[in-house]
Design brief:
By secondary structure, this protein is of the alpha/beta class. It contains 18 helices and 5 strands. It has a 5-stranded parallel beta sheet with strand order 3-2-1-4-5, with helices on both faces. The radius of gyration is 22 Å and the shape is globular. It starts with 9 loop residues before the first strand and ends with a helix. About 1% of the residues have low confidence.
Length: 444
């Protein structure tokens, strides 16, 4: 007897949005499935392309990032199970896996977050070429595109002008959506049977991917409070506000050590375990009860910087990844030996080397030190800014493709604001931010 055809349902592909709160894309997928009385299959793919070597001969995504993402995926899986659903998790090439699933499941609708970076855009294009029905939803910025006083592709090039236009027009962040509290049914067991080994597990996780145990770290992922899952993210935001820390953020944000000198939201924002709109709504609520000041404004200011890099990607796309960036400058020089010494924290400059050792050991680095080490690579060692950007992509647990590319272009003078040299003098920086040498000694 021939099998009865399976009614096409919905696949929801989690990408950089590993959460249930403030999830417009997932909400749309859920609504479609419920309205059409079809199943919804949540999936996550650990793409093997992330295991490939870069042009500078190191793994594109290193073990710190892999371990951090694994925690977020495992937390998401547990939450979906609590709602009576399950997460199907694969390791492989995303396009091949999704195209095969689409074919075997009778051409379901594939819904996912819209990511406007070249690699992620190409994934969607390849899926569409393979006949997959794809619906992408933009959801990673404070403001929804339709609220902007300009077309997203016409965003002002400089952050200052971008911020001024938004403030002049009184544009406020889009309120976060409530968490998804109901999931449509999964496909029938007969349909899921071939994939049973992928349920509630992530093949990319192994015993070698463990949280950082080093007591010196400013982001202790071995602590339950700094777990990668959504629940820990929301609890951290609530605790940060409960302790009144938003009121002093601007005065502490350039410190180099400890968990409280900055919000520490970026690792959860990077995986999408935390929505920026949810984060900002917590600050807005804090201002209502505790009062607004320059520090609370500055938190929003930096979240807005994050937005600006995203809109610039929608405007310029792959041009941001050229050696010359958006300029007519010649391709940057590169010195492999100097770059290797920088990566290993062996340049001979103590302040810089301390930071590079912290990054290698923990996968985390303060914003102040990120600027210092990037400047040193570009302006002192005269190396290719793209090599540094790739090293950050490999190492940082809070790697964000938009902000990483934007910040490296900015410091290299090849972005939308190519003014003069942005060299940071490491001796002066050490004198200003580590006068007693405490940080340098910590990571010696």
């Amino acid at each position: 007897m021939s099998k009865q055809p399976v009614a096409p349902g919905v696949i929801y592909w989690f990408r950089q949005d590993l959460r249930l709160h403030d999830q417009p894309a997932l909400q749309q997928a859920v609504k479609y499935a419920l309205d059409h009385r079809v199943w919804l299959l949540p999936i996550y793919i650990a793409d093997v392309d992330e295991d490939c070597h870069t042009a500078w001969d190191f793994i594109r995504v290193g073990p710190h990032r892999q371990a951090w993402t694994a925690m977020a995926v495992q937390g998401l899986s547990a939450q979906l199970a609590h709602l009576g659903s399950q997460l199907l998790a694969f390791k492989g090439q995303s396009v091949e896996i999704l195209a095969a699933l689409s074919q075997s499941l009778q051409q379901p609708l594939l819904v996912c977050e819209d990511i406007c970076a070249p690699y992620e855009v190409l994934q969607i294009q390849k899926l569409q070429e393979r006949g997959v029905r794809v619906q992408t939803v933009w959801q990673s910025t404070l403001m929804a595109p339709e609220l902007l006083p300009f077309a997203p592709e016409e965003v002002p090039d400089t952050f200052t002008r971008f911020r001024q236009v938004l403030e002049k027009n009184h544009i406020k962040p889009t309120p976060p959506l409530p968490a998804v509290h109901q999931m449509p049914p999964l496909p029938p067991e007969s349909v899921l049977a071939p994939y049973s080994s992928h349920l509630q597990t992530w093949p990319g996780v192994s015993a070698t991917l463990s949280p950082v145990q080093d007591a010196r770290t400013s982001f202790p992922t071995a602590s339950p409070a700094f777990h990668g899952a959504e629940r820990a993210a929301l609890a951290h935001v609530a605790d940060y506000c409960r302790r009144g820390l938003p009121s002093s953020y601007k005065t502490t944000r350039n410190e180099l050590m400890g968990v409280d000198y900055s919000t520490k939201w970026s690792p959860w924002l990077a995986t999408g375990a935390l929505s920026p709109r949810q984060a900002w709504s917590a600050i807005a609520a804090f201002e209502q009860t505790q009062g607004a000041n320059e520090s609370t404004y500055w938190i929003g200011f930096e979240l807005l910087w994050r937005d600006h890099f995203r809109w610039l990607h929608r405007k310029y796309g792959v041009r941001l990844y050229r050696p010359q960036g958006l300029t007519d400058l010649p391709a940057p020089a590169h010195h492999p030996r100097a770059f290797q010494q920088w990566c290993q924290g062996e340049t001979g400059q103590p302040f810089i080397d301390a930071a590079m050792r912290e990054l290698a050991i923990t996968g985390y680095l303060s914003n102040r030190m990120r600027q210092n080490v990037a400047s040193y690579l570009i302006h002192d060692l005269q190396c290719d800014w793209r090599a540094g950007a790739a090293w950050f992509e490999s190492q940082l647990i809070d790697f964000d493709v938009y902000s990483n590319q934007g910040n490296w272009l900015y410091l290299a003078g090849r972005g939308t604001d190519p003014r003069g040299s942005r060299r940071f003098n490491p001796e002066k920086q050490a004198s200003d931010y580590d006068p007693a040498g405490t940080y340098t000694d910590l990571w010696r």
